[in-house]
UniProtKB/TrEMBL annotation:
<protein>
    <submittedName>
        <fullName>Protein-L-isoaspartate(D-aspartate) O-methyltransferase</fullName>
        <ecNumber>2.1.1.77</ecNumber>
    </submittedName>
</protein>
<dbReference type="InterPro" id="IPR052036">
    <property type="entry name" value="Hydrolase/PRTase-associated"/>
</dbReference>
<dbReference type="InterPro" id="IPR014622">
    <property type="entry name" value="UCP036794_erythomycin"/>
</dbReference>
<keyword id="KW-0489">Methyltransferase</keyword>
<dbReference type="GO" id="GO:0046677">
    <property type="term" value="P:response to antibiotic"/>
</dbReference>
<dbReference type="GO" id="GO:0004719">
    <property type="term" value="F:protein-L-isoaspartate (D-aspartate) O-methyltransferase activity"/>
</dbReference>
<dbReference type="Pfam" id="PF05139">
    <property type="entry name" value="Erythro_esteras"/>
</dbReference>
<keyword id="KW-0808">Transferase</keyword>
<dbReference type="InterPro" id="IPR007815">
    <property type="entry name" value="Emycin_Estase"/>
</dbReference>
<dbReference type="GO" id="GO:0032259">
    <property type="term" value="P:methylation"/>
</dbReference>
């Protein structure tokens, strides 16, 4: 980089996080990013940070870029609810929607096992939760609603079945639904709105299980916003992106209300969601994200955004949507990118803080910052995988891992006698 040296702290073990915990202070929202959906170290370091936030700062739950129904099963498992599964593998095998490696991996299994162990000696209202923020699970959420209402409210279940029948002709295919309603007014919007209204009105009477009632209402909200998302998906621009991130923000706010006025949340999502969109070229397209929305709605003093990145290594991804997962080589970051600057700033992994980075004039302009999605073609990444970003404004802190490894998918290692070594720096 230019004349001034990048200020950073060595990132070597969990004690290296002391300075990060101090910087987080009394923030109620800690957003932990990742630069790909298939990098082991992003998961393990986020786990290390989350464990300390839960045990030392009394954070209430982890909310992730995952589907509500599947994540809610994990939530009930780690809290020890009846009939919630007997093993972490039983629970994580429910993540069947592509990309399966994103949550069905040993890194997440280790987190889930720790959460279950941590919760065993906690009162029910002190147990740490695990929830999905995403909007994709339209058909699964409708199915969950029908099953729940059949057991708890026979008068409302017919509205749910009506909504389910409306989407039936599209065979669990959101693309087919989006194309079918692209040029006509008729869709299933009224049906999902009706079920949300009825569940919202009746949820307190369903059962004594407050969290299960909340889950039924959340599934109805997913159905409403998923229908809106798929309706917007066929159009150009960032409208569907905004529907998705606003849904995630709405869900996060609902979870905070559920957990009380002093609730604290840890959010796990990709950098493109948790790094403030206003500090990237996303803003020119009118796109927002949850990092921006948390800052706007709850104040910068209550939000702490942590980005992640690496210089090179391997990652799990697919060549196209729905393709078989592959362990791919992540090439050295392109010259003059944020990751290249960090690699050349000194040896080893690093922890940086925006408060210190703001003193460097050269960081006030946009710099290319790598973003790898579930679809990835390494040979072409220089042409489309770098997001121009003003880093000190996009995040409050940044974890840089110089060389990374791909995640370990559960199904590849399920029969192994020993799980992979995930924490070389200790647990």
């Amino acid at each position: 980089m230019a004349k001034n040296k990048l200020p950073y702290y060595p990132l070597e073990n969990t004690q290296s996080l002391d300075v990060l915990l101090d910087a987080i202070g009394d923030a109620r929202f800690v957003l932990l990013g990742k630069a790909s959906h298939g990098t082991s170290e992003y998961y393990t370091w986020r786990t290390a940070i989350s464990r300390r936030l839960i045990t030392e700062k009394n954070f209430n739950f982890i909310a992730v870029e995952g589907d509500w129904p599947d994540c809610y099963l994990v939530n009930r498992f780690i809290k020890g609810y009846p009939e919630a599964g007997t093993s972490v593998h039983d629970v994580l095998k429910n993540f069947t929607r592509w990309p399966t490696w994103m949550w069905g991996n040993w890194e997440v299994a280790a987190l889930v096992e720790w959460l279950r162990e941590h919760n065993q000696n906690q009162l029910i209202d002190k147990k740490a939760g695990f929830y999905g923020l995403d909007v994709y699970s339209l058909w699964d959420s409708l199915e969950q609603i029908v099953q729940y209402l059949e057991q708890n409210d026979g008068t409302t279940v017919e509205a749910a079945k009506k909504a389910f029948r409306c989407f039936g002709p599209f065979g669990d295919d959101p693309q087919a639904y989006a194309e079918a309603i692209a040029f006509v007014d008729k869709g299933c919007e009224n049906e999902v709105l009706e079920i949300l209204q009825k569940i919202s009105a009746n949820a307190p009477q369903f059962s004594s299980d407050r969290e299960a009632n909340f889950g039924a209402e959340q599934n109805a909200l997913v159905a409403v916003n998923a229908e809106k998302y798929y309706r917007a998906m066929i159009r150009s621009g960032g409208s569907s992106w905004n529907v998705r991130d606003r849904h995630m923000m709405q869900t996060l706010n609902r979870l905070m209300t559920l957990h009380g006025p002093d609730a604290k949340a840890i959010i796990w999502e990709h950098n493109t969601h948790i790094g403030d969109a206003r500090a990237t070229n996303m803003a020119r397209s009118g796109m927002v994200n949850i990092g921006q929305l948390v800052r706007e709605e709850h104040g910068r003093e209550n939000a702490f955004l942590v980005g992640f990145g690496s210089y090179w290594g391997t990652a799990m991804a697919g060549r196209q949507w729905g393709a078989a997962m592959q362990k791919m080589e992540v090439p050295r970051a392109k010259p003059k990118s944020w990751e290249a600057h960090l690699h050349h700033a000194g040896p080893g992994d690093k922890l940086l803080f925006s408060e210190e980075l703001r003193e460097l004039e050269e960081l006030q302009k946009p710099i290319g910052h790598r973003a790898i999605g579930v679809v990835y073609n390494p040979e072409f990444e220089a042409f489309g995988n770098y997001v121009p970003s003003r880093l000190p404004e996009r995040y409050d802190a940044f974890l840089f891992i110089d060389e990374t490894e791909a995640v370990y998918p559960l199904h590849n290692y399920r029969d192994a006698h020993q799980p992979p070594e995930l924490y070389p720096w200790g647990t």
